[in-house]
Specification:
Blueprint: H1 2-30, H2 34-53, E1 55-57, H3 59-84, H4 93-103, H5 120-128, H6 137-155, E2 165-166, E3 169-171, E4 181-183, H7 198-201, E5 204-205, E6 210-217, H8 220-229, H9 232-239, H10 244-253, H11 257-267, H12 273-281, H13 298-308, H14 315-321, H15 326-339, H16 342-357, E7 359-361, E8 367-369, H17 376-404, H18 406-409, E9 417-421, E10 425-431, H19 438-452, E11 456-458, E12 461-463, E13 467-472, E14 487-488, H20 492-506
Antiparallel strand pairs: 1-2, 1-5, 3-4, 6-10, 6-13, 7-8, 9-10, 11-12, 13-14
Length: about 500
């Protein structure tokens, strides 16, 4: 009886789904959503492959790191307790507030909701200090201990499948603007592959005889904003092949690009205002320039502006996110929109289109309807819609083409595996034997580039989003603590150097 009901339920489920399809098909055609529907359905085979294939995990390295993290966490907690003169519970907001704001008399910081907080942003401010108060290393230690605890509990204890591979589920309709979403598998194993920290990516490695290959869309959303807004300065930077962060900083602060690069070489990612002031004051070139950002290099300021100021962000939020004074944030936001006036003109065009029919169409033909209350929140979402959806649609289409091409994924071809997609990049692995000549290597790169960089058009302007490539022996970024990580690859000679480095390391 139970079996009969189960069969009837499934039959009705299938029949009703067919009826619904027939009822809405006409609407899909009429409202011009069929193109988006078709791209979504074409994603299913490659997503199923990604979910089934999984990624190999370096279990030995992972276990060593677990031991190291626990030991380091204990050492830092002991150091913190010694500085505080008592045990401090880093996971207790009450205890941390009591220590910093009462025992040490730091003026309390508040979060966006206006509540007194010791969240990560507040701790950054406490650690950095002010003109009237030195920075507190205790706050930095609290951040580090919390970070280690999160890394361990969230990522270093992930449950892998029986074959010790990491897998995930991918949802092709996970977000409004077309981005995939990712989560654990239906069996409760694995994790969201789209927000893994670099510290964990180092444990994900290619299968024996393979090497990782990653294609990434270069400054993708910024490029789309440039062409849909029609801003001449943005377009010129792209078409002249400039470093767009250097270009933006140069225009914002009226500096020669060579000065911007020199400032960045000296300061890098330093955010300590006193250190930056000392570095610039001791340099024969930089000491002559006033009004430079206090807590970052000029290029870093250009980068943060490029990433944060295209979708209607105001100076108060920009200042809060980037830990700068509001007066400085206001000056930066104003300078950014002064050098790129096309962005505000584009905002006006977006609003006019929304007033017309509440619908925007991206460069790939995706139609996006906005039905929320008219106002700032809706406008900001609309500003981001075309760039974000265009980037992901072009990448998803490229991923479909790569997977469907037997010359790339077939056994008689390159035998390439698509393993993951992270919004503007695709992670793959390819057998070393498939790219053992310069001709094979170049053909593979050029074919992937062709599939992932389609020609796009908006308001009569035609453009492409460039593709960059990285290769490595684990998914983490290459660095001093991860020599085998992903490195930029432009030529076969670059690939040969990666091969030589791993061969030297195993001798």
């Amino acid at each position: 009886m139970h079996s009969q009901k189960f069969l009837e339920y499934n039959a009705l489920d299938a029949a009703c789904t067919l009826e619904i399809q027939q009822a809405i098909w006409e609407t899909l055609e009429k409202e011009q959503y069929m193109q988006t529907y078709n791209l979504t359905t074409r994603l299913f085979p490659v997503l199923m492959f990604m979910q089934t294939r999984g990624i190999k995990v370096d279990q030995e390295r992972l276990q060593k790191t677990r031991t190291f993290i626990l030991k380091t966490q204990e050492e830092k907690q002991n150091q913190l307790n010694a500085l505080c003169g008592r045990p401090l519970n880093v996971n207790s907001s009450k205890d941390c507030q009591n220590f910093f704001y009462i025992e040490r008399s730091v003026s309390p910081y508040k979060n966006k909701a206006g509540n007194i907080s010791v969240d990560d942003m507040a701790l950054q401010r406490i650690a950095r200090g002010t003109a009237n108060r030195p920075g507190m290393y205790e706050a930095k230690l609290v951040q580090e201990i919390r970070g280690l605890a999160k890394l361990y509990s969230t990522y270093l204890t992930i449950e892998f499948d029986q074959d010790e591979r990491l897998r995930a589920s991918f949802n092709p309709r996970g977000t409004k603007f077309g981005r995939l979403s990712s989560s654990k598998t239906i069996f409760g194993t694995g994790a969201n592959l789209q927000n893994l920290p670099q510290a964990f990516k180092q444990f994900l490695v290619p299968d024996p005889g393979y090497v990782f290959l990653d294609v990434d869309k270069r400054q993708a959303e910024w490029v789309v904003v440039a062409y849909v807004s029609g801003d001449a300065n943005m377009i010129a930077a792209i078409e002249q092949g400039k470093d767009v962060h250097v270009h933006t900083a140069s225009l914002m602060f009226n500096l020669d690009e060579a000065i911007v690069k020199w400032d960045n070489e000296l300061i890098g990612h330093t955010s300590d205002a006193d250190k930056i002031k000392l570095i610039r004051g001791n340099d024969n070139i930089l000491k002559h320039f006033d009004g430079l950002p206090r807590t970052m290099s000029v290029r870093q300021c250009g980068k943060k502006s490029n990433h944060g100021l295209n979708y209607g962000e105001g100076f108060k939020n920009f200042s809060l996110i980037n830990e700068i004074l509001e007066v400085e944030g206001k000056r930066i936001v104003s300078a950014y929109h002064k050098i790129y006036p096309g962005i505000h003109l584009w905002y006006d065009n977006v609003k006019r289109q929304l007033q017309k029919d509440r619908t925007l169409v991206n460069c790939m033909g995706r139609r996006i309807r906005f039905m929320d209350a008219w106002g700032e929140s809706l406008w900001k979402a609309a500003y981001s819609a075309i760039p974000q959806s265009t980037v992901v649609d072009s990448l998803n289409q490229g991923m479909v083409f790569i997977y469907a091409d037997p010359a790339l994924t077939g056994i008689d071809g390159y035998n390439l595996d698509i393993l993951a997609q992270v919004h503007d990049s695709i992670l793959m692995q390819v057998p070393l034997t498939s790219i053992d000549t310069e001709e094979k290597f170049n053909h593979l790169i050029q074919t992937i580039k062709l599939y992932t960089s389609p020609e796009l058009t908006y308001s009569g302007r035609t453009f492409t989003i460039a593709s960059d490539f990285k290769m490595g022996w684990n998914w983490g970024e290459a660095g001093t603590d991860n020599a085998d990580g992903m490195k930029d690859v432009r030529t076969y000679a670059d690939f040969q150097r990666i091969l030589e480095s791993v061969n030297e390391g195993t001798q």
